[in-house]
Amino acid sequence: MSVLEQIFTAATLAVILMKVAPILLAAIGGAFTQQGNILNIGLEGMMLVGAFSSIVIGSVTGSPLIGVLAAVGAGLLLALIFAVATLTFKADFIVVGIGVNLLAAGVTVFLLQIIYGNPGVTPPSASIRLPRISIGPLADIPILGTALNEQTALVWVALISVPIAWFVMYRTRFGVHLRAVGEDEEAAAAAGIGVTKVKFQSVLISGVLCGAAGAQLAMATLGSFTNGMSAGRGFIAVAALTFGLGRPVRTMVAALIFGAADAIADLLGIAGINSNLALMMPYIITIVALVFAGLRLRKIWGQRRSQRAKTSSPDLSAAPA
Fold this sequence. Notes:
Elements: H1 3-7, H2 10-35, H3 43-61, H4 64-88, H5 93-116, E1 132-133, H6 144-148, E2 151-152, H7 153-171, H8 173-183, H9 185-190, H10 195-219, H11 233-243, H12 248-270, H13 275-312
Antiparallel strand pairs: 1-2
Helix pairs in contact: 2-7, 2-10, 2-11, 2-12, 3-4, 3-5, 3-10, 3-11, 4-5, 4-10, 7-8, 8-10, 11-12, 11-13, 12-13
């Protein structure tokens, strides 16, 4: 069997879905803040504390559900810190995002040492995995059925989050207010929209979804936590939502590309291809995507500025002679 035949199979698609889920959850969370004109680069840290909390609490209680809830709570707590620092105390979003990521990395290592006496990894005794869901007769559907069968509940949550996010953003009062704030804060405030409140809520939503992403990352296969196990996936999620302009469907497509690159990189390593080159693939694609997304965003912002300049400039032709 050739390398390509080993890669492009239903089993590969199943691995892709498993790897896409944490990236997609975090990216959808970041898409909410992006709609409110907040680039939340703290997704990485929120995902990391979620992964840590899911294993620590989940293994103690023996309940995957409680582990997921703990992960969501940890992500929410870090998002609250981010929101208070940026929206209440008016700190710079980028600086606070970097601080959140550093805080998460430091706190998880510190707690690993305090709780388990090992700053690198949780012991085998602290292990918990998410149960797999069988889809019954639907598993007989060629390729897609095999890929979707025996996935975790959080994979399904990630897939369902896309239409839910679209509905919330484009069909609810909150979504209309959020997009209005992202387009023009002053106009939104003049219309009676609570700008800070709407932004605050979007950041908390991102924390919830990033916490769930961390739980999927830690509990889907390994069932343990390793120092720095998010390994840049939060930044890949930022790239996905930036490439998708904060729109759920486009963000999902971008996340699928990055997740597929990650899964194929693993399979190439298993197939004997240079593992260092294989591991570089997701990050190379991320850099390329961010460059193109940045150029696209610059073009859109330029068009908006020109439109605002036209609408705000006086009509001299109508002035009396």
